[in-house]
Amino acid sequence: MPVPRSLLTRILLWHGIAVLATAIAVSAGIYLFLEGTAERFQRQTFQAQVQAIRDGLRAEKGGRLSLTPAAAREASDEGRGLSFRIVDGEGRVLLAPDGAGVFPLAQVPRGAEEAYFTRRSRTAFYSGLSVPARIAGEAAWIVTIQNLDHPANVVDDIVRQFLLYGLAVILPLLMLMLGIDALIVRRALRPVTRASAQVRALDPNRLDARIDAAPLPVEVRPLATSINDTLDRLVASLHLQRDFTADAAHELRTPITIARMRAGEIADAELRAALVADLDGVAGIIANLLQIAELDAMDPGAGDAIDLSALAADCAAAIAPLVHRSGRSITFTAAPAEVAVRGDRDLIARAIGALLENAVKHTPVGSSIELAVSSEGAVEVRDDGPGIPAEQQQFVFRRFWRGDRGARNNAGLGLAIVERVAQIHGGRVQLDSVPGRTIFRLEFPNAVGDAMIDRPTR
């Protein structure tokens, strides 16, 4: 049997099995007790009948047997289905009450000891007691019987139907109990459910978030504590890596600057230009590393209200000379109305600039680049370049990933910076690329209308 995944289902399943097994065991025990008690009472009744027959038995002239009226009344009671027979060794009836029905005497035990028996005829179910006796010097047996199907015999009916009626009562009670158990277990697991919601809501950008273990049950609290400890170790490891990256980048800036100055003293103009270009590329990579380290250390904040269209226009104007020198064109489309987003102006400008630089690097000469701002608070950078292969699109925002491994001065950090800026502002960046058309969409969910815009002083 497959194990249920739900803890609630497991508890109810095993509890239901335990309760049902207990109910059946208790019912069977009570049934056996009642059956044994009823059988003991029947034996006592039969023995009282036999004693009454012995005390009231008379032998008349001619060997005929009879009972005194008192003994006859006690030995035979048709109102309770009680009757008797006295038979000889050959099974012939020596004495029976008047009007006694037919009973299969051939099946009655006739041994040296008294014997309790049950028999079924074509019309009824009987129980009885066969007791050996000596009558007029001859072997005989006093047989007392009771018709268990007689309407007056309700004890045996109750015993026989106890299990059926008991289960008819127990099963609804079991279902009611399981329903109550479900409510109890759900209430008991409510702190666990809340803790699960806290785990699902953990934001990778909020490294200080932890699970509140105090309200959890004692059995579950160690799990929450272990998760919190794991998060602490993870945060410590991230801080260590971040500090190492920042320290290494800082330490490299000075040697790179010195190397660039010395490269400018080289007499060979071609070699000097190549070395300076390489060192400038390395310096750009180091700057990106520092930028990544700073972004990773930042927590999301409300920020100031910024006019997204105006900021995007400034970014387009800043990169336009580079675009035109590289043989490409750029156009800008502002939103129909003023669009304000809350955030850090410099970071958003850096993200838009990185998208534009990425379009310049990865589109051929003659391509057109479009920068557009929508009224929903989104910035789109479009180009008509070759596009990004479908199998590579899932990697473009990964740090240090490059589609062109042979490209120089490209560490694969630009789009990672864009994604991190989007995360800090509670937004996201999306890619839609097919051959001949690529769109990067930077969305800001906190866009507001008619807000007070903090414009930089020009």
From TrEMBL:
Residues 186-239 form the HAMP domain. The chain crosses the membrane at residues 12-34, 163-184. It catalyses: ATP + protein L-histidine = ADP + protein N-phospho-L-histidine. Gene3D superfamilies: 1.10.287.130, Histidine kinase-like ATPase, C-terminal domain. It is found in: Membrane. Its main location: membrane. Pfam families: HAMP, HATPase_c. Residues 247-448 form the Histidine kinase domain. Keywords: ATP-binding, Kinase, Membrane, Nucleotide-binding, Phosphoprotein, Transferase, Transmembrane, Transmembrane helix, Two-component regulatory system. GO terms for molecular function: ATP binding. This is histidine kinase. It comes from Sphingomonas rustica.
